[in-house]
Amino acid sequence: xxxxxxxxxxxxxxxxxxxxxxxxxxxxxxxxxxxxxxxxxxxxxxxxxxxxxxxxxxxxxxxxxxxxxxxxxxxxxxxxxxxxxxxxxxxxxxxxxxxxxxxxxxxxxxxxxxxxxxxxxxxxxxxxxxxxxxxxxxxxxxxxxxxxxxxxxxxxxxxxxxxxxxxxxxxxxxxxxxxxxxxxxxxxxxxxxxxxxxxxxxxxxxxxxxxxxxxxxxxxxxxxxxxxxxxxxxxxxxxxxxxxxxxxxxxxxxxxxxxxxxxxxxxxxxxxxxxxxxxxxxxxxxxxxxxxxxxxxxxxxxxxxxxxxxxxxxxxxxxxxxxxxxxxxxxxxxxxxxxxxxxxxxxxxxxxxxxxxxxxxxxxxxxxxxxxxx
Amino acid sequence: xxxxxxxxxxxxxxxxxxxxxxxxxxxxxxxxxxxxxxxxxxxxxxxxxxxxxxxxxxxxxxxxxxxxxxxxxxxxxxxxxxxxxxxxxxxxxxxxxxxxxxxxxxxxxxxxxxxxxxxxxxxxxxxxxxxxxxxxxxxxxxxxxxxxxxxxxxxxxx
Amino acid sequence: xxxxxxxxxxxxxxxxxxxxxxxxxxxxxxxxxxxxxxxxxxxxxxxxxxxxxxxxxxxxxxxxxxxxxxxxxxxxxxxxxxxxxxxxxxxxxxxxxxxxxxxxxxxxxxxxxxxxxxxxxxxxxxxxxxxxxxxxxxxxxxxxxxxxxxxxxxxxxxxxxxxxxxxxxxxxxxxx
Amino acid sequence: xxxxxxxxxxxxxxxxxxxxxxxxxxxxxxxxxxxxxxxxxxxxxxxxxxxxxxxxxxxxxxxxxxxxxxxxxxxxxxxxxxxxxxxxxxxxxxxxxxxxxxxxxxxxxxxxxxxxxxxxxxxxxxxxxxxxxxxxxxxxxxxxxxxxxxxxxxxxxxxxxxxxxxxxxxxxxxxxxxxxxxxxxxxxxxxxxxxxxxxxxxxxxxxxxxxxxxxxxxxxxxxxxxxxxxxxxxxxxxxxxxxxxxxxxxxxxxxxxxxxxxxxxxxxxxxxxxxxxxxxxxxxxxxxxxxxxxxxxxxxxxxxxxxxxxxxxxxxxxxxxxxxxxxxxxxxxxxxxxxxxxxxxxxxxxxxxxxxxxxxxxxxxxxxxxxxx
Lengths: 374, 158, 176, 373
What we know:
The structure holds four protein chains of four kinds.
Chain A (H helix, E strand, L loop, with lengths): L4 H15 L9 H38 L15 H10 L11 H16 L19 H9 L1 H12 L3 H32 L4 H7 L9 H4 L3 H16 L11 H4 L9 H26 L10 E2 L7 E2 L2 H27 L7 H29 L1
Antiparallel strand pairs in A: 1-2
Helix pairs in contact in A: 1-2, 2-12, 2-13, 4-6, 4-12, 6-7, 7-10, 7-14, 10-12, 10-14, 12-13
Chain B lengths: L2 H11 L4 E5 L6 E4 L4 H10 L7 E9 L3 E9 L6 E9 L4 E3 L8 H12 L2 E3 L27 E2 L2 E2 L4
Parallel strand pairs in B: 2-5, 6-7
Antiparallel strand pairs in B: 1-2, 3-4, 4-5, 8-9
Chain D lengths: L9 E5 L11 E7 L2 E8 L7 H7 L2 H8 L7 H16 L5 H29 L4 H21 L8 E2 L2 E2 L5 H26 L2 H7 L7 H6 L5 H5 L6 H4 L25 H25 L18 E9 L2 E9 L5 E7 L1 H6 L2 H4 L3 E2 H11 L3 H5 L1
Antiparallel strand pairs in D: 1-2, 2-3, 3-9, 4-5, 6-7, 7-8
């Protein structure tokens, strides 16, 4: 059975080339891996774009309905194509760089931000087989790349040469730096419980008795609390209400992307949704059983496998489960955004240092004790 | 307390300050010596039976030959109000500021200065407030003529 | 010591309040998520405008006595009236209202002794050029003018739907 | 280490184009990082010199101009101007007209406070309250559609009466709205007033002690939020208010100190409820009779002067008119509550965070049309 998405792609290419009579095995291995990686990343990039477009629509639609109005409903069925229309509009817009901006950094910033948001997709497993790269330090990789976003945002804030942008950048830096601590603690809780940092193995570990083998219930109450710590910290990391200080409209206009327009603005927009998805997907993977659904496609009620779906069906079911969970968690983010006011800059640090970090430490200690006992 | 009683108290304590007590208008008013305005304001504010703690309004009125500066004071404690008027010369529109007694006077005096050109001596920050700093003239004066244009923006009716 | 204890209790109280109030708030928005929107889609569904709306003027030159009261009462002088001749020979040569200035205060309609000027329920007042804001009621057909400027606009009623002077007896008192 | 870091105070322009400066207010902030050391408000971007206009148009013609002072509460402005002119001319206003004016003013007060609720929520970062506030405000606006035919600049009260009588259908619509409002009010509080994040943002922020509030001439919910029970409707009753039963709401420091932003906000919320009560009483006790007194078409006012004050949603709205025997005032001075309320900004918004400045500004609830006149 193939291990990861790249293996599958290689397998498909090999078979396809085999049909026309070419031997793919003769191509150097580096090239083969590279080609497979490229295709996989392209697929992921497409996926990110689709997710961002869909949630761009969903956000407006959900906001509309929550606020007793219609939301987009003209372009396409339920207004689904609204974001595509918007994308086309934005693409033809003039690309403005302020005269006093640092041109190079101004251009570089959105790319860095997007890199930071996109990189974790490489290790997100959609099912047992559907993962681009099965890194053994998957969680670590995801978290560390998220930090790249900070650099990009500070760069954007500084290069814009606008005081509000600078405020946004500095706020985000303070916020993301501090929220990586509780995030790390929550991840460590899971790592202690399952003994791995590989996302695929973490999910495989949660296989078993219906939903009670998921980390969130298996490690009750520690993992349960850790999930909230992780989700809230992720919310802060993806700059969503109530932690949207870096782009607080009513205070600092639009924060670090005040001066951005057109395509560059879209990249910021895209990366926000990408980060949201990463946080949601990581929460699903770490705590909510990843691709395991409430109805398991691997039935093992007494430790012995009684029924297992075939590899293709299994991958499909897993993907549906995984995307469903991530989308639900993203919906919760939207729901939060249209319900809550924003916290203040001192309160966001208070919440991190005096609530989430202690809670994270308690979770970690509790989980360690559990790991020792069992 | 009626305006008459307030006038009596004021006359008893500051006999030189009150010039006239006028009751033939809908709201009676006291005409006071412009030089005494600070004393009168401080007295009205601090007298235990009066306690005019709130300044509602400062108005400048262009009477062509002179300016009137009108002060509306009220007491939240007792619920009574008083109107003070000070007549000043048109050529030398100058009166003491009461911003140190009533902080509310700060912006009112600035506005009166801005729109009528009455100078409040001792005001901490007497600048134009509603009009731009480089505006010429004081629009609420009766002899004011609106400029044709301002920084190239035409003022002509369409 | 007691300070620390109360701070500790306060911390947990706040945490509890935060959790409870946040959950209740989510309930409110969730309820709205599944209830009907209250807005209408403008070009498809037009707002219902009640009778007596202060929109466009309607003007009937037949009934007009050219008394110029509307011109005098207008706070912004947006009504322009030109009359030629004298006595019985008087003829209206110009009657125009500049909607760029109009306050829609209804004073002109109230003051009109023959109720030949009144305000209608037409509310769609946008136009593209400033010069288009002036409607010339003396010209052939104001309806046509408006149709040209605002395609798809409703036809104005030919006569006043209700004569304000008869409908509001108390207003009679206003005329000396 | 920390001392050796070089930091600078920077000056930041907030406005005149800024999402939460309520139109065109410009604030100059002296900031030290996130801390704001001082705030200087600069006003006048919407200045139209209404007081000069008043000298150029007649008493009757100035009425529509008062709509444009505090454009969120034009019925209250109309009421103030009408009362001021009537005071000078001794026109007897029919009883029904008095009640109808108060009805319009109280409905307008609800509308104005609803908008304030919405924008204050928005400034705190919550978007949804804005739409809920506007939803109910829209109902009021539709009621005004029926009442006077306009949605924002009502021009409803006239000198000597009101423009139109209240029709039974409109009365029914108002009653329906008042019942709806009672239900929504609870929902508003669940969504925003009691939300812990919101409370933490507003409680103990921008505290105005009572004596400072009085010294700066603050009025309306801003003064009452500081615990001073001063309401002109009670202190110097006018129109039909003596016959109505309502309460003066004051800030009690429920969530923090008396006089903080939350208190000012809460006073507005309570006033919505009181106004609903007043509107019900008016609908129940509306006297019959004419709604417009006989007023000459050219209204000449003998030389006289009067200062008439009313309680507008934002505080004491005063018209000081000096007449000279013609049909135009010699001098008209408008005491705009927002103008006086805004003057305290520099005093209280010191050594607070950038986010606090926004909340303080929002809780003062200025309307620039009135500040700049």
